From TrEMBL:
PANTHER family: OXIDOREDUCTASE, SHORT-CHAIN DEHYDROGENASE/REDUCTASE FAMILY (AFU_ORTHOLOGUE AFUA_5G02870), SHORT-CHAIN DEHYDROGENASE_REDUCTASE FAMILY PROTEIN. Gene3D superfamilies: NAD(P)-binding Rossmann-like Domain. InterPro entries: KR_dom, NAD(P)-bd_dom_sf, SDR_fam. Belongs to the short-chain dehydrogenases/reductases (SDR) family. It comes from the Bacteria. SUPFAM superfamilies: NAD(P)-binding Rossmann-fold domains. GO terms for molecular function: oxidoreductase activity. It comes from Actinospica durhamensis. Residues 7-190 form the Ketoreductase domain. This is SDR family oxidoreductase. Keywords: Oxidoreductase.
Length: 249
């Protein structure tokens, strides 16, 4: 795996699911990892315990990414524990699938503030550090921004905005050596998708049929890609939005 030795990484929404897999992979690649969560302290502590049991470095820090004060506190705590933050994975997100008529103003606020504003706030905090050199931000989008499935309009719109933000931020931050990329995961087996009843559903069967590699994704599928994008091995890659979906599009 690519090396992120001695780097400080924040992974938002890492108490479970893809974020937990990404946090573990970054720790294996040598980074000291801040496992952020919103409510699931127990899940976050489990991820920290898994990392430290393998000799890695990690702490859990509660913060709501949609709250500017929380995000500034998250960065302050990360810097206090491990020094300047040079790797940021914007993974925290919420989703609710519904037909167009079911999209409410409250749900719009919830998804847009977590998925888009959260990504903007953390990016601002990373960039506000004047003592960082080369840094890497990886935003977790969705393959839905390519496949555009029905009943996902609000969620996919929020993630399409994340894709656009990624490309613009890469242009603004590139001159400082800060790279910004996004990955677009395909449907994956996580606590989040299980809670939505995705595992074993017709929707899952259709997605597998449309996936050349013929299965649902797992949290372990994304860590090595994120560790690569975080590392100097990816030093010439920025402003890219990369499909990681077993070929589903
Ligand atoms: N699973 C898939 O099929 C799939 C496919 C494509 C893209 N993705 C993307 O992959 C990422 C992870 O998805 P997942 O399925 O692993 O999600 P998940 O199992 O639902 O976990 C979501 C994580 O985000 C955290 N979170 C939610 N709101 C937060 C907030 N305001 N502040 C801080 N943390 C917050 C949760 O923390 P708490 O539990 O502590 O509240 C949890 O750790 C998301 O960006 C999602 O859009 C997932």
């Amino acid at each position: 795996m690519s090396s992120n030795n001695a780097r400080t990484a924040i992974v938002t929404g890492a108490s479970k699911g893809l974020g937990a897999g990404i946090a573990k992979a970054l720790a294996e690649s040598g980074a000291a990892v801040v496992v952020n969560y919103r409510a699931d302290a127990r899940g976050a502590e489990r991820v920290v315990a898994d990392i430290t049991a393998k000799g890695g470095r990690a702490i859990a820090v509660q913060a709501d990414v949609a709250d500017g004060d929380d995000v500034r506190r998250l960065f302050a705590r990360a810097r206090e524990a491990y020094g300047p933050v040079e790797v940021l994975v914007n993974n925290a997100a919420v989703a609710a699938f519904a037909p167009l008529s079911g999209i409410t103003e409250d749900e719009f606020q919830r998804e847009m503030t977590t998925n888009l504003l959260g990504t903007i706030l953390t990016t601002q905090s990373l960039a506000a550090q004047e003592d960082i050199g080369a840094a890497s931000i990886i935003n977790v989008s969705t393959a839905g921004t390519v496949s555009h499935p029905p009943y996902t309009a609000l969620y996919v719109a929020s993630k399409s905005a994340v894709n656009a933000f990624t490309i613009v931020a890469a242009k603004e931050l590139g001159p400082r050596g800060i790279r910004v990329n996004a990955i677009m995961p395909g449907p994956s087996d996580t606590e989040g998708t299980r809670a939505m009843g995705y595992a074993g559903s017709d929707q899952e069967a259709q997605a597998i049929a449309a996936t050349p590699l013929g299965r649902t994704g797992t949290p372990d599928d994304y860590g090595p890609l994120v560790a690569f994008l975080a590392s100097d091995d990816a030093r010439w890659i920025t402003g890219d939005v990369i499909l990681a979906s077993g070929g589903m599009r």
